[in-house]
Design a protein that fits this description.
The structure is a single chain. α2 packs across α3, α3 packs parallel to α8 (about 310-325) and α5 (about 230-235) runs parallel beside α6. The radius of gyration is 21 Å and the shape is elongated. It contains ten helices and 18 strands. The strands form five sheets. The protein has an eight-stranded mixed β-sheet with strand order 4-1-5-7-8-9-12-13, sandwiched between helices. With about 375 residues, it is α/β, with parallel strands linked by helices. The structure holds aspartic acid. The site of aspartic acid has 11 residues, from loops.
Length: about 375
């Protein structure tokens, strides 16, 4: 019997398995498997054994919805006990959103989940698909006992999923995690930066099953500030039924707070119970509302600092916290605490990141404060 690790592959679609047609690249059922079967390297003993479970229909990831996130998570949950790790093959366009969502949805995760895809389909002679797939599989095979988080592997970088962003449309290094160092770099060696990795939740017995939290039922949104915005537009966006909004601010969390109408709109929304989380527009850095007077005015109006959360992670986290049934006060508080390594508090030592997880926050503390 084979002792090779077993990897379960959820193939959702994306460029990687697409076929060139007269209407441009399109996903086609069974085609990726067919291409893989033609490459003997995928059967090399160094590559773990893997089985592909294909979405029907396969998606361009721009069509990905929270219902698809749930479909991915459920496929992982159903196969959790039988496999050592999980690979999600996904289009690049919304891969960072899905990775962030899965990092919150898969509670109790004790095995690695890696998302990958490619910029050029596997069918092309010159492609990044083969290297991304083979390396992601080999990382899962080698390190399935030590990695227990949702990650993206792309063009030599292993990134924490809820820190990753798509940063390039045209080059192979399409992903980066600007506010957190890569978990691993692949060159001649596969190097993992172990102190950066979330420790497997070893304190508790490894669960044979994982829980899946459905996301997408809350009403959340993201809004990017720009010079010339009309507060009335913002007001329409903050109106019911919205529960949480990621406000993409300038710099360290600044906004046109000299405009009384803008401030009135923000204040009215937070008073009505909308959770507004400030993140920063620049790729790198942190929104901390307590640094500048304009940020402070937002803080005083009830906006919370999202620090270095990506918009993708902030949206997923809002979905998650509202799904848990928490009221606005607790959602605000937890938005400012790292739950699964998704944010760094100012001055926090990186190695302390993993300490606070939703699974270490006392259930009692939360249930007492749950407002339905
Ligand atoms: N539009 C494609 C997708 O996200 C792009 C890709 O896979 O690179 O599915």
């Amino acid at each position: 019997m084979s002792t090779r690790p077993k990897i379960f592959v959820v193939y959702t679609g994306g460029t990687i398995g697409m076929r060139k047609t007269s209407r441009g690249y399109q996903p086609e059922s069974g085609y990726l498997q067919q291409l893989i079967d033609q490459v003997p390297r995928f059967a090399d003993p160094e590559v773990p054994h893997f089985e592909i479970d294909e979405f029907d229909p396969l998606l361009d990831s721009s069509d990905m919805t929270p219902a698809h996130w749930l479909d991915i998570a459920e496929r992982i949950r159903r196969n959790y006990a039988a496999y050592d790790g999980f690979l999600v093959i996904h289009g690049t366009d919304t891969m960072a959103f899905t990775a962030a969502a899965l990092s919150f949805m898969l509670e109790d995760l004790g095995k690695p989940v890696i998302l990958t895809g490619s910029q050029i389909p596997l069918e092309e002679t010159r492609n990044d698909a083969q290297a991304n797939l083979l390396t992601a599989l080999m990382i899962l095979g080698r390190h399935h006992r030590d990695l227990a988080e949702v990650m993206i592997y792309f063009d030599s970088l292993l990134l924490r999923g809820n820190r990753a962003r798509k940063v390039s449309v045209g080059s192979f290094d399409a992903f980066s995690s600007p506010n957190y160092p890569p978990l691993g770099r692949v060159g001649i060696e596969i190097g993992i930066d172990w102190p950066r990795v979330l420790p497997p939740r070893a304190a508790r017995p490894e669960p044979a099953e994982i829980a899946v939290v459905e996301l997408g039922r809350a009403t959340v949104a993201a809004y990017r500030l720009f010079p010339g915005l009309k507060p009335a537009q913002l007001s329409a966006m903050l109106a019911p039924p919205v529960q949480g909004v990621v406000l993409e601010c300038y710099g360290t969390g600044n906004a046109p707070t000299a405009d009384p109408e803008f401030m009135r709109v923000i204040q009215a929304a937070t008073e009505a119970g909308v959770v507004i989380v400030a993140v920063t527009q620049p790729l790198r850095g942190s929104a901390n509302l307590e640094l500048y007077a304009t940020g402070r005015a937002l803080f005083d109006a009830g906006v919370v600092s999202g620090y270095d959360l990506t918009t993708e992670a902030a949206l997923a986290k809002l979905f998650y916290l509202f799904e848990k049934g928490y009221g606005a006060g607790l959602v605000k508080e937890l938005m400012q605490r790292p739950l699964v390594g998704e944010l760094t508090l100012p001055g926090a030592a990186d190695d302390k990141l993993a300490e606070l997880t939703p699974w270490t926050i006392e259930d009692r503390e939360l249930s007492e404060r749950r407002e339905h």
